[in-house]
Design goal:
Main location: cytoplasm
CATH superfamily of the largest domain: PPM-type phosphatase domain
Structural class: alpha+beta
Helix content: 25-40%
Strand order of the largest sheet: 1-2-14-13-7-8
Pfam families: PP2C (PF00481), PP2C_C (PF07830)
Strand content: 25-35%
CATH topology of the largest domain: Phosphatase 2c, domain 1
Mean pLDDT: 92
Number of strands: 14
GO molecular function, one term: protein serine/threonine phosphatase activity
Organism: Chanos chanos
Low-confidence stretches: none
Order of helices and strands: EEEEHHHEEEEHEEEEEHHHEHHH
Shape: globular
Number of helices: 10
CATH class of the largest domain: Alpha Beta
Protein name: Protein phosphatase 1A
């Protein structure tokens, strides 16, 4: 069967919600992969008296979906119920937040705890460790702080004041500190992978890489320890947070994705739709991985602008007329395929294309008018997705 399908699965899982001054939307899509191994969590109002706190996360599984699925259901509880975190939450007087360092310690403890718990479950069930693993990127949002949590190469970023204010650092085996830990545990980094095999240096699960005797859990070839960054909230300038697996970041840079999200929020307040446009655009830009994205908007997020809506409608109309012209121009040579249409448009200077998304973000519009003009054309148009 191989690692990839003959054509991508584009059906999406969506969800949205609001509360605590936040709105969120999410989208996940299997894409070209044979199996969907991503999972996600979105919770507004946390247990243990933290009703003003919220938690969002994306888990990118590998070698199976078991670890990602378990984390999506249980990681938050492991964080909020462990003694370190509960001690932090209970310590301050009413109305005050616990100290940043206490919260960070509690989050770290939760990760180490769930990792050990999953190992024990796996050994009881299978008589040996489950081979699957998962990265995790998330945010714990309190009334005064945003805690970015990262373990692996999924990524989270914060847009503030119209630009990328913060983003998490990917945990790759070739990073100097990661490489040092791997080598100290008796491993090596070959072709930018742990022992030439695993492309991430921190993850939950992956117990085959966590059995070096004499080394603690954070000293293994693969570490379950997250990096936690505390950022003070700015009500005036905070716009949105994006959490996404590497299937998104493989084809879009931080600034590109931020610019694209901002442009979409100016034409719609439907966050599910924005997330769907992100995953579709990344598919058309050439991503071959599962894709999941969570978009969390603060009160200061860009608002729908009548001018932007008008520009978008004019762009769509222009693209529709250009597709019609390209098809008619072929004349007796017959109807050109969609790839030819996309390449023709890609060679032109088209004004007002969405920043970051460019022509790829308009593929669905182009495909719709192409299919309308050629209702009986049966050629599979998904075989060449990359129109960049």
């Amino acid at each position: 069967m191989g690692a990839f399908l003959d054509k991508p699965k584009m059906e999406k899982h969506n969800a949205h919600g609001e509360g605590n001054g936040l709105r969120y939307g999410l989208s996940s899509m299997q894409g070209w992969r044979v199996e969907m191994e991503d999972a996600h969590t979105a919770v507004i109002g946390l247990p243990h008296g933290l009703n003003l706190w919220s938690f969002f996360a994306v888990y990118d599984g590998h070698a199976g979906s078991q670890v990602a699925r378990y984390c999506c259901e249980h990681l938050l509880e492991h964080i909020t119920s462990n003694p370190d975190f509960q001690g932090a939450a209970a310590a301050p007087p009413t109305g005050e937040e616990p100290s940043v360092e206490c919260v960070k310690t509690g989050i770290r403890t939760g990760f180490l705890q769930i990792d050990e718990h999953m190992r024990q479950i796996s050994e009881k069930k299978h008589g040996g460790a489950d081979r699957s693993g998962s990265t995790a990127v998330g945010v714990l949002i309190s009334p005064h702080h945003v805690y970015f949590i990262n373990c692996g190469d999924s990524r989270g970023l914060l847009s503030r004041g119209g630009q990328v204010h913060f983003f998490t650092q990917d945990h790759k085996p070739s990073n100097p500190l990661e490489k040092e830990r791997i080598q100290n545990a008796g491993g090596s980094v070959m072709i930018q992978r742990v022992n030439g095999s695993l492309a991430v240096s921190r993850a939950l699960g992956d117990f085959d890489y966590k059995c070096v005797h004499g080394k603690g859990p954070t000293e293994q070839l693969v570490s379950p320890e997250p990096e936690v960054y505390a950022i003070e909230r700015s009500e005036a300038e905070d716009e949105f947070i994006v959490l996404a697996c590497d299937g998104i970041w493989d084809v879009m840079a931080n600034e590109e994705l931020c610019d694209f999200v901002r442009s979409r929020l100016e034409v719609t307040d439907d966050l599910e739709r924005v997330c769907n446009e992100i995953v579709d655009t990344c598919l058309y830009k050439g991503s071959r991985d599962n894709m999941s994205v969570v978009l969390v908007c603060f009160v200061g997020a860009p608002k729908v602008s009548p001018e932007a809506v008008k520009r978008e409608a004019e762009l769509d109309k222009y693209l529709e007329s250009r597709v019609e012209e390209i098809i008619k121009k072929q004349g007796d040579e017959g109807v050109p395929d969609l790839v030819h249409v996309m390449r023709t448009l890609a060679s032109e200077s088209i004004p007002n294309l969405p920043p970051g998304g460019e022509l790829a973000s308009k593929r669905s519009v182009i495909e719709a008018v192409y299919n309308k003009l050629n209702p009986y054309r049966s050629e599979d148009t998904s075989s060449d997705m990359n129109c960049q």
